[in-house]
Specification:
About 45% of the residues are buried. This protein has ten helices and six strands; from the N terminus they run H-H-E-H-E-H-H-E-H-H-E-H-E-H-E-H. About 50% of the residues lie in helices and about 10% in strands. It has a single domain, classed as Cobalamin biosynthesis CobH/CbiC, precorrin-8X methylmutase (Rossmann fold, 3-Layer(aba) Sandwich), CATH 3.40.50.10230. Helix 3 packs across helix 10 and helix 7 runs parallel beside helix 8. The protein is of the alpha/beta class. The protein has a six-stranded mixed β-sheet with strand order 1-6-5-4-2-3, with helices on both faces.
């Protein structure tokens, strides 16, 4: 706890001129701490309703749907379960594998497509696959699927920056993201867990 407290003190000066709310500061701090990179302060993007939408979804027992097992594993499922929610990942499911082969798409895309209407009102957390984020945005645009919030933080040099820009450019769904090529599962997990922590400590 002492190390974490000191870490937050080191991070704080990098946030002081960003005009963040207390809750935004907590989410930013957790994301930066997970990355070990204060440069994240300038590239994290949280839409105005994202934290409230995430809190409301968790309080209402909504589930979290992820693109990879690393995100599913990292989310604080014990505390989430107190509110009635669960975390799901289908990327390794046999039916998803068959769908991906049949449609000629990635497993991550197939997994999101297979969730379908289950995504309505839920939390989507993507930490690895740009294709998964593109697919969720397609579901929103073409099939009128409406998650409560999208935490979209895929990492890498192919598609990641573009998928996150597409997320930030849309105005239908509240979002948490990071500009550019940086990101990854630990950052997506940190954003979700920060909000779970906020809720659990306000009860």
């Amino acid at each position: 706890m002492e190390i974490e407290k000191r870490s937050m003190e080191i991070i704080a000066p990098y946030l002081k001129n960003l005009n963040l709310t207390d809750e935004e500061t907590k989410v930013y701090s957790r994301m930066i701490h997970a990355a070990g990179d204060v440069d994240y302060a300038s590239i994290i993007k949280i839409s105005s309703k994202a934290i409230d939408a995430t809190k409301k979804a968790i309080q209402n027992g909504k589930n979290i749907f992820t693109d990879v097992e690393m995100v599913r594993t990292g989310i604080n499922k014990r505390t989430l379960s107190k509110f009635g929610g669960e975390v799901f990942c289908k990327v390794a499911d046999e039916e998803v594998k068959k769908l991906a082969e049949r449609e000629g798409i990635t497993r991550s895309m197939a997994a999101m497509r297979s969730f379908g209407e289950e995504l309505n009102g839920s939390i989507v957390a993507i930490g690895n696959a740009p294709t998964a984020l593109f697919e969720v945005l397609r579901l929103v645009r073409e099939e009128k699927i409406l998650p409560a919030v999208i935490v979209g933080i895929p990492v890498g040099f192919v598609g990641a920056a573009d998928s996150k820009k597409a997320l930030a450019d849309q105005n239908q769904i509240p979002f948490i993201t990071v500009e550019g090529t940086k990101g990854g599962s630990p950052i997506a997990v940190a954003a979700i867990n920060a909000i779970i922590y906020i809720l659990n400590n306000s009860r």
